[in-house]
Design goal:
DNA-binding transcription factor activity; elongated; 324 residues; 15 strands; 11 helices; DNA binding; 5-stranded mixed β-sheet; D-Maltodextrin-Binding Protein, domain 2; 3 domains; DNA-binding; LysR_subst-bd; alpha/beta; transcription regulation; 36% helix; Arc Repressor Mutant, subunit A
Length: 324
C-alpha cells in the first residue's frame, strides 16, 4: 500500500469509531451518515487487509491491528491540528468535554474546586471523572480516552508527561472521643489499636509494594506508605497490622465514629476530614517521607491548547488545598 494514495480522511473515521465503538455515534461525531461511515470503514478494510472492527454485543470491538494503530493515529491527527492552528481555545465560549481520572479523595479535594472555576470561567466545558483505579489506566491514556490522570506514580514511561500538583505525607485520624485523642500517638498505640487504611488494589490485582504497574506506568494502589510503616517498627518484635482495608477513603469518618480504630491516610485527606471537629489529626510516630501527587498526560497532548489551559487550572486550584 502506498501512503501517497491513502485518503487521510479515513483516519478521522477510524479514530471516531475507535472512540465510540459505534458507527452511528461516530457518524454523529463527524457529521456523516451511518452509511458513509460504513463505506469508509469498508475502504479502510480493503486497503489495510484487516477487519479493524468486529461487531459484538458490546459494540464495534477493535482488532489487534486496530489497537496497534490507535495511539499513533490519534497522535498524528493531533499533530496535524496543531500544525494548522485549528485548536484555539477560548474557555469563555468553548464547548468541550475533558476526561480526567482520579480517586475519590482527589476528586473531592481538587475537582470540586475545579468545577467551581469552570462554572465561572468556562460555562460550556464539561468534566467526566473516571476512577484512576481501573486496571487499564495507562492504556486508556494511550488511546486518548483519558486526557489527564491525577495520582501518585512511582514510574512513568517516556511517552507520558507530568506536572506536580501537591506534596503530602501520611497522617493518622482518630475519633475525638478516642482514649488517645488528647496526646501525640506512639508506636505502642499503633500496636494496641486497630488500623484502617485505604487500599484500591492488592496483590491479587498485580500490586507490588503498594503499586500497580501497567504498560510501564506504576501507580499507587495503597493510599499509605507501607514500607515506611514497616521501617518504623523494624527494631521491634511486632509490626502494626492493617486490620481493615477499604476501597473508598470517604468512608473513613463513618468507620471511626464510636470506634477505637486509627485511620492511616494521606495528609491532604486527613486535614479535610478533620475540618468539622469530629475527627482528630495526629502525626505518625515514625518517619514518613513526602510523596508528590502528579497530573499525567500523553506527550501527544503537549500542544493541545485546551489541555494546556486545563492543566494550568489544575495547578491554580491545587494551591487552595492545604496538604501539610
Amino acid at each position: 500500500m502506498s501512503a501517497d494514495r491513502f485518503d487521510l480522511n479515513l483516519l478521522r473515521v477510524f479514530d471516531a469509531i475507535f472512540e465510540d465503538r459505534n458507527l452511528a455515534l461516530a457518524g454523529k461525531r463527524l457529521n456523516l451518515s451511518q452509511s458513509a461511515i460504513s463505506h469508509a470503514l469498508g475502504r479502510m478494510r480493503d486497503v489495510l487487509g484487516d477487519d479493524l472492527f468486529v461487531r459484538t454485543g458490546r459494540g464495534m470491538e477493535p482488532t489487534v491491528r486496530a489497537l496497534a494503530m490507535a495511539t499513533q493515529v490519534r497522535g498524528a491527527l493531533a499533530q496535524i491540528k496543531a500544525a494548522l492552528g485549528v485548536d484555539r481555545f477560548d474557555p469563555s465560549v468553548a464547548q468541550r468535554t475533558f476526561v480526567l481520572a482520579a480517586n475519590d479523595y482527589i476528586t473531592a479535594l481538587l475537582l470540586g474546586r475545579l468545577s467551581q472555576r469552570l462554572r465561572a470561567e468556562a460555562p460550556l466545558v464539561d468534566l467526566v471523572v473516571r476512577p484512576s483505579t481501573r486496571l487499564d489506566l495507562a492504556g486508556q491514556i494511550d488511546v486518548g480516552r483519558i486526557d489527564v490522570a491525577i495520582g501518585i506514580f512511582a514510574d512513568m514511561p517516556r511517552r507520558f508527561r507530568s506536572i506536580d500538583v501537591w506534596e503530602q505525607t501520611d497522617v493518622l485520624l482518630l475519633n475525638r472521643e478516642h482514649p488517645a485523642a488528647d496526646r501525640p500517638l506512639t508506636r505502642e498505640d499503633l500496636l494496641t489499636y486497630p488500623l484502617v487504611a485505604v487500599s484500591q488494589g492488592g496483590e491479587e490485582e498485580g500490586a507490588v509494594s503498594g503499586f500497580i504497574v501497567e504498560r510501564g506506568l506504576a501507580r499507587q494502589s495503597e493510599m499509605f506508605d507501607r514500607e515506611a510503616l514497616n521501617r518504623g517498627f523494624a527494631e521491634q518484635a511486632d509490626v502494626p497490622r492493617v486490620r481493615m482495608a477499604v476501597a473508598h477513603s470517604l468512608a473513613i469518618p463513618a468507620l471511626l465514629r464510636h470506634s477505637d480504630m486509627l485511620a492511616l491516610v494521606p495528609s491532604s485527606l486527613g486535614r479535610e476530614l478533620a475540618r468539622n471537629g469530629e475527627l482528630t489529626l495526629r502525626a505518625t510516630p515514625y518517619a514518613c517521607p513526602d510523596v508528590t501527587v502528579r497530573a499525567v498526560w500523553h506527550e501527544r497532548n503537549d500542544g493541545d491548547p485546551g489541555l494546556q489551559w486545563l492543566r494550568q487550572q489544575l495547578i491554580d486550584v491545587s494551591r487552595q488545598v492545604r496538604c501539610r
